[in-house]
Design a protein that fits this description.
The protein is α/β, with parallel strands linked by helices and 277 residues long. The chain contains ten helices and eight strands. Catalyzes the oxidation of 5,10-methylenetetrahydrofolate to 5,10-methenyltetrahydrofolate and then the hydrolysis of 5,10-methenyltetrahydrofolate to 10-formyltetrahydrofolate.
Length: 277
């Protein structure tokens, strides 16, 4: 499976670096996870991340907060983690309850600890090719394209979805690799005809089997970044499979890469904070 295989390689490397970090500093890299409320899917994703940390020898510290948490209280909890030198990376699980200003909370994570790449400063650094961490799912997708020998340069890439942690950074990363990028969203007219012109399609809409096989240009590369209930992606897999040159599966595609990138970036943050190469 494409994602599982590439993710395994990235995580093996993160595990090796974790051992080296401990030998050099006597400490372990540490990821703090912040979960607000009791959404079961979010709880599952946080558990998957913490389990992966444990497997790789990365420490994790969990901060569960009630759904009634205010923006101010969440920002204060994040600031406490930001000020703690034993914490190298901070992850705030998205989505947070609707009354919270999620952007303010993401932006409270200092850029050096923003291993999930969700802050505005991280976005700017990524967009302008500066040091920082990219949002894990789009960064994982770029690595997946590389692993499969797909060079975005000169290709028409269509990103369906414009969310701050997926569609928008995805467009920037593809642009940085010289793709011609079209971002489509809920107000886009005649989506199928735009998708039909794409060499690379990234589906990040959050609607099960939304992208149909007949929309695709034969030979297109199709990346399914959907994570809908029941492990169903945003692409109608069987239909798309008959037309696509490469189609990432759900499960076993983009999801494992998201977690692998989070592990890689947490370990890298630990090295940077310790001033080690
Ligand atoms: N702060 C963040 N919040 C959210 C992100 C994110 O990157 N940062 N992404 C999504 C959900 N997500 C991680 O949080 C996520 C979703 C799915 C998977 C995954 O590996 N899925 C597996 C299948 C699930 C399973 O095996 O039970 C797969 O696709 O193979 C990883 C991460 C929203 N929130």
């Amino acid at each position: 499976m494409p994602g599982t295989e590439s993710a395994r390689e990235i995580m093996a490397c993160a595990a090796e670096r974790t051992v080296r970090f401990e030998q050099q500093t006597g400490e372990k890299p540490c990821l703090a996870t912040v979960l607000v409320g009791d959404d079961p899917a979010s709880a599952t994703y946080v558990r998957m991340k913490r389990n992966r940390c444990a497997k790789l020898g990365i420490e994790s510290r969990h901060v569960p907060l009630p759904a009634s948490t205010t923006t101010e209280a969440l920002v204060a909890a994040i600031t406490e983690l930001a000020d703690d030198p034993a914490v190298h990376g901070i992850l705030l699980q998205h989505p947070v309850p609707g009354h919270i200003d999620e952007r303010a909370a993401f932006d409270a994570i200092p850029v050096g600890k923003d291993v999930d790449g969700v802050g505005s400063s991280s976005f700017a650094a990524m967009a302008f090719g500066r040091d920082g961490f990219a949002s894990c799912t789009p960064a994982g997708i770029m690595r997946l394209l590389d692993a499969y020998g797909v060079d975005p340069s000169g290709k028409h890439a269509v990103v369906i979805g414009r969310s701050p942690i997926l569609g928008k950074p995805m467009a920037m990363l593809l642009l940085a690799r010289d793709a011609t990028v079209t971002v489509c969203h809920s107000k886009t007219g005649d989506l199928p005809s735009i998708v039909r012109t794409a060499d690379i399609v990234v589906a990040a809409v959050g609607k099960p089997e939304f992208v149909r096989g007949e929309w695709l240009k034969p030979g297109a590369v199709v990346v399914d970044a959907g994570y809908n209930e029941g492990n169903v992606g945003d692409v109608a897999f069987d239909e798309a499979g008959t037309r696509a040159q490469l189609l990432t599966p759900v499960p076993g595609g983009v999801g494992p890469m998201t977690i692998a990138l989070l592990m890689e970036q947490t370990v890298e943050a630990a090295f940077r904070q310790a001033g080690l190469p």
